Give the backbone structure.
Amino acid sequence: MTRDAAPTARRSRLGSPLPVKFYDRPTELVARELLGTILETRTPDGVTRARIVETEAYLGPDDPACHAAAGLTRRTEHLFGPPGMSYVYFIYGMYWCFNAVTRERGHGAAVLIRAVHPITGIDLMRRRRPRAHRDRDLTNGPGKLCLAMGIVGEMNGTSLRRGPIIIRAGDAVSDADVVVTPRIGITQAAEWPLRYLVRDDPFVSKTPPQFFRRNYEAG
C-alpha cells in the first residue's frame, strides 16, 4: 500500500462529544458545521478517529432523495428518532452508510457522512481495508469509511454522545475552505446543493468538475 496521505493528517483538537442541541437544528446547517469535527468509533478491535471532511444533507419527508419520503418503516425507524442519534443503513447488499439524525423527533432528517480524514487507528483502518492501495482510498466514500472505522448495523440507533460512534468537537473550517456542490450518487433531487466538503482535502470523494462552481456563503 502507498502510505501517501494519512501520515500527514491534520491533528485536530479532540473535544467533547457534540451536544444534542447541535443536531436539533436545520439539517443543512448541521451538515456544514460537521466539517472539521471528529468521528470516533470504539470497537473490540480498537479506537479509530477521523476528521469529517465531506457531508450531505437529507432534509426529511419533503426531500425525495431522503429515506423519510417513503414514511416510517422498520428500516427508517431510527431516522425518525431524536436528534443526535445514529442512522446506519445497508446499500447494494454490500456496504453500510452512517448518518447523524437531525431536527426534532419524528421529522426524519439526517446528515450522511461521506468522507473523513484519518487521525487515529490508521493501521487498524488499513487492516480493515486491505484492498485500498493508497491511504487516501481508505475513507474517501461513505461505504469505505464505515468499513475502515468498523461501523456496522448493530450501531444503528445509538447515541452519538455515548457511542460506540461518537462525534466530537474539532477545529472549525472557515467558509473560504468549504465547497458546496449538488449531492452525488442519487437520482432524485440530485441537483440540490446539499453536499459540503473541505476544499483540497485528499480524502474527499471524487467530484465531477462541473460541480466546483461556488464557495459556501454564510447566511
Observations:
- The chain has a mean pLDDT of 90.
- The chain has one domain: 14-211.
